[in-house]
Design goal:
By secondary structure, the protein is of the alpha/beta class. It contains five helices and five strands. Helix 1 runs parallel beside helix 2.
Amino acid sequence: MALHFRADGILHVNVITEQEVTAEQVKETVDFTKNILKGERVPHLITTEKPYVIPNNEAREYLASKHREEISCADAYILKSLAQKIIAKFYIRINKPRIPTNFFTDNDSAIIWLKTFI
């Protein structure tokens, strides 16, 4: 995963793997981000390079947990495929993320929404 702090205060997390995202990858990214943010919470824009990349069940559970609350005040995911849209609905209904979470098909709409949390 590649992290980029945007000038507007949004953290862009670009998932560059070609396989499903694992809980281990998510934990490593969260821990790395905690060290950088030092207690600050910022909105996250999450994108993928490939339209078929999705988080596995354990990764979704971790993403919805209290650990993400420590670094993010809101998450906006950019969806590129039907598979991602199905997983997104499942994530909201089953995993019930603890922070405001929304899904978009374009970056501009996601950024407008995320800026309401800055």
